[in-house]
């Protein structure tokens, strides 16, 4: 019993730390923008920083951190669908909307993950409530996009930000399902190292083509890159891989419920972002769709004697 209770506590600790790391990423990226950095530069450097963090961790821990052929193969795919695509779309979107706006759009990840899991994982069937919730969530995204409220004072373009965010949502959902499908066949830390190393190479090439190398970056800019690279990239991704080995991929997506709340609150407090009517209404619809779906799913699991957590 103590062992089970301890595992439960570790699971919730991982959920909290992962949500905090990912939830504050948008705010720190916008800080980097204010210090003169560009979207591809941020992705390339933070991915490289995360890769170094993983390699250092592997050198210290050593046990269970091998990188074999399977890890390289899975990591190569993940470097595209879980690093390059979602990170680039997120960073570009953050030029046109607040961290809270992007965080609310990212709340669709649990629903998109459930649909992707239904399509590709035979043991995680789709419930009708998920479809209803996804429709409600998409209605919320429509309000975000059509309201014209981007949560920033100047340069807001919610249509572009919303479209890019949806691309990132789909990519993250596919990445989660792909990682779950191959869970147990790779070292989570080794996979993180591969995907960040390859992801940093891909995005570095894109950086030089699109933006060039950064120049005149301030100390605050480098500090924000270090924060995003370690606390908002390496740490939550490594913890997330641990999490999906202990719970269902749909249950692990609960992180997506917490991220937008962290992003909105921290964005308002740190960057003075605006809680405009479109963001409030659209965000409420998105979260309503997610929460309604989650409540129905949990009720069904409880009736069937299943919690989604290890027992």
Question: Please, could you describe this protein's structure?
Answer:
By secondary structure, the chain is mostly helical. It has one domain (2-303). The protein is 77% helix and 0% strand. It is built from 13 helices and no strands. Helix 1 packs across helix 12 and helix 7 (128-147) packs antiparallel against helix 8. It is globular, with a radius of gyration of 19 Å.
Rg (C-alpha, Å): 19 Å
Number of helical regions:
13
Distance between the termini: 9 Å
Which sequence of SSEs, written as H and E, runs from N to C?
Answer: HHHHHHHHHHHHH
Instruction: Report helical residue fraction.
Output: over 70%
Q: Largest sheet, if any?
A: none
Q: Name the average pLDDT.
A: 84
The coarse silhouette is globular
Would you report the number of β strands? 0
Pairing-aware structural class of the strands and helices?
Answer: mainly alpha
Tell me the number of structural domains.
Answer: 1
Task: Output the keywords.
311 residues, mainly alpha, 0% strand
Topology:
Elements: H1 2-23, H2 25-34, H3 39-61, H4 69-93, H5 99-106, H6 109-120, H7 128-147, H8 158-181, H9 188-210, H10 219-244, H11 249-252, H12 255-271, H13 277-303
Helix pairs in contact: 1-10, 1-12, 2-5, 2-10, 2-12, 3-4, 3-9, 3-10, 4-8, 4-9, 5-8, 5-12, 5-13, 6-7, 6-8, 7-8, 7-13, 9-10
């Amino acid at each position: 019993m103590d062992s089970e209770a301890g595992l439960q506590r570790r699971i919730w600790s991982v959920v909290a730390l992962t949500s905090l790391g990912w939830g504050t990423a948008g705010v720190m990226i916008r800080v980097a923008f204010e210090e003169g950095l560009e979207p591809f530069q941020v992705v390339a450097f933070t991915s490289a920083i995360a890769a170094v963090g993983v390699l250092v961790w592997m050198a210290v821990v050593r046990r269970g951190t091998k990188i074999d052929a399977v890890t390289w193969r899975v990591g190569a795919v993940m470097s595209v669908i879980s690093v390059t695509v979602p990170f680039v779309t997120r960073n570009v979107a953050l030029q046109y909307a607040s961290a809270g706006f992007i965080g609310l759009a990212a709340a669709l990840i649990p629903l998109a993950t459930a649909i992707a899991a239904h399509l590709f994982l035979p043991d995680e069937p789709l419930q009708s409530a998920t479809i209803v919730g996804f429709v409600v969530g998409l209605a919320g995204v429509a309000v975000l996009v059509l309201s014209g409220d981007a949560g920033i004072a100047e340069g807001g373009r919610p249509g572009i930000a919303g479209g890019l965010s949806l691309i990132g949502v789909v990519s993250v959902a596919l990445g989660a399902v792909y990682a779950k499908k191959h869970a147990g066949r790779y070292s989570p830390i080794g996979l993180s190292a591969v995907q960040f190393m390859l992801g940093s190479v891909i995005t570095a090439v894109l950086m030089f083509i699109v933006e060039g190398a950064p120049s005149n970056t301030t100390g605050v800019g480098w500090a924000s890159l270090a924060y995003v690279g370690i606390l908002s990239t390496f740490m939550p991704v490594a913890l997330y891989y641990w999490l999906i080995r202990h719970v269902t991929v749909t249950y692990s997506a609960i992180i997506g419920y917490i991220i937008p709340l962290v992003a909105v609150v921290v964005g308002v407090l740190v960057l003075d972002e605006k809680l405009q009517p479109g963001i409030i209404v659209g965000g409420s619809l998105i979260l309503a769709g997610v929460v309604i779906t989650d409540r129905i799913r949990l009720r069904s699991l409880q009736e069937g004697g299943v919690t989604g957590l290890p027992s």
